[in-house]
Amino acid sequence: MGVVAACLAAFAERGDPDAMASADLLALLHRMPGFAVGRWRFTDLTQTRLAQVLAPYGVETRDATLPDGRRRKSYRLRALQAAEDLVKR
Description:
Blueprint: H1 3-13, E1 19-21, H2 22-29, E2 35-37, E3 40-41, H3 47-54, E4 62-65, E5 71-76, H4 77-88
Antiparallel strand pairs: 1-5, 2-3, 4-5
Helix pairs in contact: 1-4
């Protein structure tokens, strides 16, 4: 499973929220087996590494107020869905 698919799976696990804090997304990714990209396993990802591997797909963090009221750097579901379309091409 590639990193974009893994991120979408993490979003699905949380009920497909519009946005998810990068720290929360990483916590879910760290439980996944396999490699995110190259030599980095999902368990090896940091917020910086996740940003690096998602950047080529045009996926970046944005400030978002989450449903629990936290304002965090977050990834947006729609950006990951657009990235998935790029991967499929």
